[in-house]
Amino acid sequence: MGSLIAQRCSENDTYFNDVFGTSRSSTKTNASCVQVINFDSYRMLQEIIPSCTHILTTIPPVEALLNIIDINSNETLVGGGRQCCDPVLNHPNLCFRDLVQPNTWIGYISTTSVYGNHDGEWVTEDSEVKCEPGSNGKLYYRAEEEWRNVAHECGLRLHVFRASGLYGNSRSAIHTIRKGKYSTSVPNSRAKSPTSRIHEEDACRAIISAMMYNEPVARASCLWNLADDEPAHRDEVMAFSKKLLEDANLELQRTSDEYSTSAPYAVTQRSGRASRRLTDRKRVQNQKMKDLLLPDGKLLYPTYREGLQSILDFNKADWF
Question: Could you say which of 34, 143, 235, 293 has the lowest number of CB atoms within 10 Å?
Fold first, then answer.
C-alpha cells in the first residue's frame, strides 16, 4: 500500500516535489521518481525527516514490545529511550520527535479491527473502540495513541486511517480462488458476517486527498474510516470471484493438495484475520471519507464487483 501511494504522489509533481520511501528491500516500488531509503539508514533519515512536509507510515506495530509496555498506562511514549510498539517511534537509532518539524502532516494507516465486535452494526469514526486485550486491534489502537501523543507534543497534523480489508491487482479474492486456497466444501460460519473492504486505489485516493486537506486547526487529529459502500459476506465475494474466473476460462492453480477444495484449509489453518471475521462483526461506514476526501463523493470501485472485475481485466493477459 505504501509503495502505491508513493508512486501516485510522485506522479503528482504539481503538489509533491520529492518523494521518499523507506524499506528493507530496494524492490518495494517500481516508481522511478521515488527514492527508496533503507529503514535502518538512520543518518539519511535524520537528514530527510526535518525537510518533509508529509510523512505517511504504513509499518504495523510490533507485538513483542507489548511485553515490556504497560498497555493500560497513560504515559506519553515518545523519545528519551521510552519504548513504543510503533517501529517508527521506537527506531533504535533516531528520535522522531526531535527531527520532525511543527505543523508537519502525519498519516498513520491503522485498521478497522480496533472497533472490535459491534454485532454486525454500522461503525463510524465516533463508534466505541471495543477491541479485546491482546488482539491485533488493541495493538493498532495502542500505536494510534502513541502517534496522538507525539502529534500533541510536537504540534503535528495527524491523520489516522482505519482501513478495512485492502485488496488490489496483486492480492484479492480472485487470487485466493485461483490458487485454490479457499474451500467451499466445509461449513463456513464466517458467511453469516458481512465484512468491509476497499480497493487499494480508492484508499490511495482518499489518503492523498487528506494530505491536501486543510484542517481548521493545525494540530487537529483527523480520523477516517476507509471502506467501500457495500459490506458483503466473504462466501459471496468468493463465489463472485470464482464465476469471473470461470467465465474468463481461466483454470485454477493447484500446487499442493493442502489447498485443494476438499481439504479443510479454512477450518484448520485459520489466520488471525480469519478468526476476527468470526468474532468482530461490524459494517464500516465510509460517509465521512466520501464527503470530505473524494472530490465527487464517489469511489472508483464502490463494491467488490467493480473492484474484482478490474483486477481480472488487469491480470487476464498474464494469467492466460
Answer: 235
Decide: residue 304, CB within 10 A, 0-12 exposed, 13-18 middle, 19+ buried: buried
Residue range(s) defining the domain that contains residue 203: 40-171+194-231+281-300
Residues 156-179 as b/e (b if ≥16 CB within 10 A, e otherwise) read bbbbbbbbbbbbbbeebbbbbbbe
Contact by Cβ (8 Å): 120, 131? no
Question: For 63-116, how does the pLDDT look when each residue is reduced to its tens digit (9 = 90+)?
Answer: 754 444 444 444 433 444 457 899 999 888 889 999 999 999 999 999 999 999
Are 150 and 97 in contact by the 8 Å Cβ rule? The answer is: yes
- Residue 168, Cα to own-chain centre: how many angstroms? 12
Contact 179, 168 (CB under 8 A): no
Residue 17 has a pLDDT of 86
**Residue 86 within any structural domain of the chain:** yes
Q: What is the C-alpha to C-alpha distance for residues 208 and 293, in angstroms, rounded to an integer?
A: 9
Which residue type does 201 have? E
Buried b / exposed e along 187-202 (16+ C-beta atoms within 10 A): ebebeebbbbbbbbbb
The neighbouring-strand residues paired with 159 are: 107, 222
Nearest Cα residue to 196 out of 288, 296, 121: 121
Residue 125's CATH number: 3.40.50.720
From CA 19, how far away is CA 7, in angstroms rounded?
Answer: 8
Q: How far apart are CA 83 and CA 92, in angstroms?
A: 10
**pLDDT tens for residues 146-185?**
999 999 999 999 999 999 999 999 999 999 999 887 765 4
Report CA 196 to chain centroid distance, whole Å: 12
Total domains in the chain come to: 1
* Residue 1, in any domain of the structure: no
Does the pTM surpass 0.70? The reply is yes
Q: Please report how the helices 2-11 and 200-211 are oriented relative to each other, as an axis angle in degrees rounded to 10.
A: 60
